[in-house]
Design brief:
Radius of gyration: 22 Å
Structural class: alpha/beta
Distance between the termini: 18 Å
Length: about 475
């Protein structure tokens, strides 16, 4: 049972936090989108070539895009997981710009007023002032604002719009771009490789430790929009950083598509944390791909919350390449009415003395479906590998569903693997205990749920933990 005193402390922080005013309208509002009249729906080789030309990309990037499009036309939709039969590529707009400013503006005051107002509602400028070392903000297919603290620039940290990185650091980008997630990996990696636009490039030099988090926020606005940002992160030997990703979109009652890609390279003895709070609308298919390669002694941490989307398929992957490397995967998924949250983790142990931990929690309500899908592999070379997997599911009513599909393959007898899975409902005795002390039923239920997810939420920076708790409360309304 959750400690009521813990909950009251969170509420005190929340009353003063930058996310205190979050409500459903914060995410579901939309701006005028007359700019969409210039952009067509559907995908074609001509569109792929147009995107590359619009960005004035080098020839090697155009070649990669066209090769990826070729893969996209040949690779079928996945024949496992949630149904994607209602996803109509001909009804998606794959590229649209609301503001024509390559690399984004360097001041919030220069951002077009209606776009700036959207990010103001989401608390992004205020978050930058209070807790962030740098911010990127993407609206539709283009980054519209980007900044980084001058001190980090002087230390050689690169935090750029991905389009700008291709222009200014082509050799570094070409060395790593889609080397972690190749375009022929699956249909949506191929689609991404063809039409990607915007995103983040982060390079942290050897030995540099970035103390405050860096953040990117991705916003879709128009109906039937697709967003395909590319995030490329290189944490050199002995370096450290923390990156936060947020995202949202309004609800129209018509499908939208998010198929971003995240590639992370963690050097020897480096440490990196990737946190995300994904709150796309229930119109959205969230078919994201996230993967990291970790070298000797490196540490990779994934912390994620999936709240929105009608259908989510997301399984952050860690490839433990170097000896003594480690990966931690912590995640929450909340499936409400009409939602399927198919989430989990993939971990591949390749080096000796590698270790991993997966802690996944899911909540199902209103007929929603939460699925944990895991893929853990320990190969012959991975001597003395250790892995622990914990899956906890909370079902809030008789019509909701929770499933677990773990795939564990161990090819080395020296490995130690532990897998636990639990499922339950709200405990009536806990609710009675709280209500007998004057706490309303709805608040008692929310307190228990917050206690359930607390091991994950507490790993987020304070302001984002508050945001996650607020999003959970919104989902818990009318339980």
């Amino acid at each position: 049972m959750a400690d009521p005193h813990v909950k009251s402390e969170v509420k005190e922080e929340k009353s003063e936090g930058i996310f205190a005013g979050l409500n459903r309208d914060t995410f579901d509002h939309s701006d005028p989108s007359e700019y969409m009249e210039k952009f067509k729906k559907g995908i074609s080789p001509q569109l792929v070539a147009h995107i590359s030309k619009d960005k004035d990309e080098p020839e090697w990037m155009l070649h990669q895009r066209m090769k990826a499009y070729e893969y996209f036309t040949r690779i079928p939709l996945p024949d496992w997981g949630p149904s994607l039969e209602k996803l109509d590529f001909d009804e998606i707009c794959f590229f649209a710009k609301a503001a024509d400013k390559k690399g984004g503006y360097d001041s919030w005051d220069k951002v077009p007023a209606y776009i700036k107002n959207t990010f103001d509602r989401l608390g992004i400028p205020e978050a930058e002032k209070q807790v962030l070392a740098g911010v990127g903000a993407q609206y539709e297919s283009e980054v519209i604002y980007h900044s980084i603290e001058k001190e980090l620039e002087e230390q050689g940290v690169l935090f750029l719009d991905m389009d700008v990185a291709v222009e200014k650091h082509p050799e570094l980008v070409q060395k790593y771009f889609m080397k972690c997630v190749p375009a022929n990996d699956h249909k949506f990696a191929a689609l991404h490789g063809a039409v990607w636009s915007g995103g983040t490039f982060l390079y942290v030099p050897k030995g540099v430790k970035v103390e405050k988090p860096l953040q990117a926020y991705f916003r879709m606005n128009a109906m039937n929009m697709g967003q395909f940002e590319h995030t490329l992160i290189i944490i050199d030997d002995g370096a450290e950083a923390h990156y936060i990703e947020g995202c949202s979109a309004p609800k129209y009652g018509s499908n939208a598509l998010h198929a971003g890609c995240v590639e992370v390279f963690v050097g020897k003895g480096a440490k990196f944390r990737y946190s995300s709070v994904e709150n796309w609308s229930k119109d959205t298919y969230n078919l994201n791909t996230k993967r990291a390669i970790i070298e000797e002694g490196g540490i990779m941490e994934w912390v994620g919350g999936n709240m929105g989307s009608g259908v989510t398929m997301l399984y952050p992957c860690s490839i433990l390449k170097g000896r003594n490397s480690r990966a931690d995967h912590l995640g929450i998924a909340f499936a409400n009415a009409g939602q399927t949250q198919d989430t989990g983790a993939k971990i591949f142990h390749l080096g000796e003395n590698t270790s991993s931990r997966i802690v996944m929690k899911s909540i199902s309500k209103g007929g929603g479906k939460s699925i944990y899908r895991g893929d853990l592999r320990i190969v012959k070379t991975a001597k003395n590998a250790i892995s622990q997997v914990e899956c906890d599911a909370l079902i809030l009513d008789p019509i909701s569903v929770s499933d677990t599909y773990p795939n564990i393959k161990v090819d080395n007898n020296s490995a130690t693997v532990n897998h636990e899975a639990r499922v339950g409902r709200l405990n009536e005795e806990d609710i009675f205990y709280l209500t007998s002390r004057g706490i309303p039923v709805a608040q008692a239920e929310a307190m228990i749920v917050n206690g359930f997810i607390n091991p994950i939420v507490r790993e987020l920076p304070l302001e984002y933990a508050v945001e996650m708790n607020r999003l959970i409360e919104l989902e818990m309304e009318n339980l």
